[in-house]
Design goal:
mainly alpha, about 325 residues, about 0% strand
């Protein structure tokens, strides 16, 4: 499963938001409200309105970049970050480190790895780890550098330093960071612990339920996994990973037709969804539907080659089987 590092949202996005009439409120606060609930198009519109009102505030540009990233528009994210007003690295250190994180992660998704590494290394070198904001950001950067164990260590340190006055979303995000990354290093009980904590602080994020489901699935707890995927789809009925992950669980239970329905549903939303093509190819190959299997596996390989989603061997194994069978 592909884990989007832009789910690791830094502290500067979060704030207390209480309003009764949106029209009378600060558009930046409205944007944060929508962003924290996964409504990224609404958040983007609000952040853009905030930027129009106050074009000298770099925070608005950074929030726009985060919303763009959640909508898979990394070129737009990079462009808006380049347009941001200059940040005083000495007097606005936390904001500057946040900016380095966003730039690094955007470069990473655009496969500009040298620029990404430079940003992440600069962030880690400049962070004061006894400050919870900077420890948080350094953890993000280390995750971007694939030093996952150290990233988790710094996020846990940030949690311990987090003041009680911080909003619930800050706790939710740090726990989610740890949970997502614990899955990457196959520490599934740790992932389950922190993702459940994240949900207790913010129950409105589909990706958190989806990741908790994946942790349960990897931990061979299929029933709990499917319950989590179902909850993710309650929050967002078009959350692709939850749709395809539900299909994986159904396939493991031998419910092949139901699994195929899930994968086809995912493709109806996004015809280039890797997991749906890959798992449909595997199922069709097992059913001796060789040509259809080959079609889906070729699509999976193309998507995988462009996005570096999984090990090449994972796709090549079944693609070669399909090619031999169809010959």
């Amino acid at each position: 499963m592909k884990f989007r590092l832009f789910c690791i949202v830094v502290l500067s996005l979060s704030t207390h938001v209480i309003f009764t009439d949106e029209k009378e409120q600060d558009p930046a606060k409205i944007g944060v409200f929508h962003y924290d609930r996964g409504h990224y198009k609404d958040a983007l519109a609000a952040f853009q309105a905030a930027k129009e009102q106050d074009p000298q505030n770099p925070m608005h540009y950074m929030r726009i970049a985060k919303a763009y990233a959640q909508l898979d528009n990394f070129e737009g994210a990079l462009q808006i970050l380049k347009e941001a007003p200059e940040i005083d690295a000495e007097h606005q250190k936390a904001l500057y480190l946040d900016y380095l994180w966003l730039m690094g992660n955007t470069y990473r998704y655009l496969h500009a790895f040298d620029q990404a590494t430079e940003c992440f290394q600069s962030l880690v070198a400049n962070a004061a780890l006894d400050d919870y904001r900077q420890a948080w950001l350094a953890g993000n950067a280390l995750s971007g550098l694939a030093d996952h164990e150290k990233a988790i260590e710094l996020w846990q340190a940030s949690l311990a330093l987090l003041p009680e006055s911080e909003p619930e979303q800050s706790y939710a995000t740090l726990h989610r960071n740890i949970g997502h990354t614990a899955i990457v290093i196959k520490s599934y009980p740790l992932a389950i612990e922190h993702l459940k904590q994240s949900i207790s602080h913010n129950p409105h994020i589909a990706s958190t339920y989806d990741s908790l489901g994946t942790a349960y699935r990897k931990n061979k707890q299929l029933l709990l996994a499917m319950q989590c995927y179902a909850k993710a789809l309650e929050v967002d009925p078009e959350w692709l990973n939850a749709i395809s992950n539900m299909g994986i669980c159904l396939s493991k239970e031998g419910k092949t037709q139901e699994a195929m329905q899930q994968f086809n549903q995912a493709l109806s939303i996004n015809e280039r969804h890797f997991e749906a093509h890959y798992h449909l190819g595997k199922i069709l190959l097992a059913q001796n539907e060789k040509n259809r299997a080959l079609e889906h596996l070729k699509q999976a390989k193309e998507i995988n080659d462009q996005g570096s989603i999984v090990s090449v061997d994972k796709v090549e194994k079944y693609l070669k089987l399909a090619q031999r069978s169809a010959a």
